[in-house]
Design goal:
This protein is of the alpha/beta class. The chain is built from 19 helices and 31 strands. It has an eight-stranded mixed beta sheet with strand order 5-6-4-3-7-8-10-9, with helices on both faces. Strands 19-12-11-23-31-30 form a six-stranded mixed beta sheet. The structure holds flavin-adenine dinucleotide (FAD) and S-adenosylmethionine (SAM).
Amino acid sequence: MRRDNTPWRPVQPASLQWNDAGDPISAEFGDVYYSGDNGLEESRYVFLQGNDLPQRWRRHCRRHFCITETGFGTGLNFLLTWQAWRELPEPRPDLHYLSIEKHPLTREDLARALANWPALESLAAALIDHYPGLLPGQHRVLLEQGRITLDLWWEDVANALPDLASRGRALVDAWYLDGFAPACNATMWSRDVLRAAARLSHPQASFATFTAAGQVRRDLADAGFEVNKAPGFGRKRECLRGHIKRTAASEPATDTPWDVAGIVTAIPASALVVGGGLAGCAAAAALSRRGIAVTLLEKGKLASAGSGNDQGILYTRLSRKHSSLTDFALQSFRFASLFYRAMFQSGQLTTGLDGALCGSFHQSDNTAELDALGEVLTQLPDLAQVLDAQQAVAVLGIEQAGAGYWYPGSGWLRPVSVCRALVDTGNIEVIEDCGEIALENSTGQWQALVNGSAIASAPCAVVATGTAATNMQQLGWLPLQAIRGQTTHLPTTEVFEGLRAALCHKGYIAPARESLHCIGATFDLHDDEQALRTEDHQHNLDSLADAVPAWRETLTAFDPATLAGRVGYRCASPDYLPMVGPVPDVTAFLRDYAPLRKNARQTIAIEGEYMEGLYLTTAHGSRGLTSAPLAAELLASMICCEPLPLSRELSRAVAPARFIMRDLARNRI
Ligand SMILES: Cc1cc2nc3c(=O)[nH]c(=O)nc-3n(C[C@H](O)[C@H](O)[C@H](O)COP(=O)(O)OP(=O)(O)OC[C@H]3O[C@@H](n4cnc5c(N)ncnc54)[C@H](O)[C@@H]3O)c2cc1C
Ligand SMILES: C[S@@+](CC[C@H](N)C(=O)[O-])C[C@H]1O[C@@H](n2cnc3c(N)ncnc32)[C@H](O)[C@@H]1O
């Protein structure tokens, strides 16, 4: 769904009434979320048994099994499915559960509804803990060490299913069709929705639903499903279940499908990742989690270029309006915050040494925006809160100069620790100091060449070489820019010790790591000076003194000429979104989409031609800590033919090929 420029606000939550038994009822639709008789058993019977689960998981031959649900509601179906998956001994497929919900419950209502099921208590607690609340968009949640992926799309099913189906990929193994009764919610059961479901179905896909309404039965059959009646649960007479019978015809493209690869490649058993910064290490981890054997090739040491600072902040950016930039910033931030939290909880990262999710406060002098967002954010307190300078003292532990946004799920991280922890698993081979890698395709294999000799090969390769990506012969066309940044290492003093969370102003400071604060940073385009500059240290000290006037005296006492620091280069794209996706065949793009030079508004119904098995993740700008984990999920989901964690609009917004399309539309190439 196109949201650009519409006001950014929380999604409209479900409006609930509660009956005497403590069960939620939708005030809008006047219907129950689950049966009052025995909700647990009915849901198990209708949806799990109706799809022959968990038995079918035993015979499933692909690595993952995808269930898609229309209407997440209280999450009861999800929890029962998760419980059934847990109880099944290995081998069992990984579970991908994609649920679409227009009016999510608030976290409080979710907790109240799930309190009805003591048998599901621990799973319910985990769901509530990972729940995105009313944050708009698509939210990926990883559970069970990543064996379960829960995708929550807060969207009208009438938009979300056609969006998912428009990529023309069969993704779904089983459907839980669970909107309210068709008589009170026709949108959920529309022909377009059911046709989109058919287009998304794998050849063996099944469906199950509690309704036996004649119109639904006919429309499901019309969409291509074989529909059978089954006895209903308890007092209900009938319900429906069945299988996809015939391949659904694809819908005509309404937009030029340049982002969809015309050729679908097989899921690779092995992959190369070139570049060992945040982007490469996150991509390696996401692929490895899916059972792909990864060789990570780094010309120097891991995290020795852009990702080499001692401390970085988990940033995001709010805005009063939707844009691809804002939506990606918030969705990737939420994902990253949970991703690092899991790394701390599992012991992969150590608080204080490798980072701390202690929150971060971002000064802002845009009072109109603070006022407007302050109101909106009252419904999203887990994401951010607007605080005035005095209120900020309580979270920061120090007095500072301004009002701003408090992000409780943020904090600081040491990128090198994150990189090392990410690749510390059995099936990632890390080769450091291997020299500059070039890639060459030879009979379907990508060869990693150093001075012309192959040192590794695989059918799939991910380029994550930051600003150096344009050195690769296949990527010389990318519009990347390197932005110099210098950080200053400030020995901690008693004065700074009160700081309890990260503070972002024109620069940033976090609580000390091993008695040093890595403060930053300058921001200079077209500047290739590698050596530290005293005036840049002075700049960092001055901007911190402006942000925290009470520290000015202490900061003035430092001699910038004696301070240590580091110079690094951020890699940015012209629109400040990262570049994540398959690498286009530029010649084919220029040939196929040439008519756009004359008329940029026309639709050309030709799918994109891409370099088979070659992918890119770069241009993470000043926010690699935030964007790299979700970018890695996006790539790995593309490579493994899974549902993507982003809407089609957002995945197009980060696709590297967007710049070719943009330049064709402007008649510049
Ligand atoms: C001063 C400064 C401050 C920053 N502060 C923050 C912050 O607070 N928060 C935040 O989120 N982000 C911050 N960033 C940005 C963040 O560091 C980057 O977004 C992130 O490091 C990008 O990671 P990457 O993996 O894309 O690139 P890199 O870390 O640059 O990794 C690319 C890797 O590829 C290797 N390589 C290159 N060419 C080849 C080749 N041909 N063969 C093999 N290997 C190759 C390089 O050696 C390098 O290790 C900051 C950046 C700078 C410079
Ligand atoms: C019967 S409840 C689902 C119960 C849920 N599966 C559970 O396990 O608790 C139906 C859900 O569909 C949602 N819904 C209704 N119309 C919708 C639409 N057009 N798009 C997406 N969700 C919708 C409702 O908000 C409600 O949460």
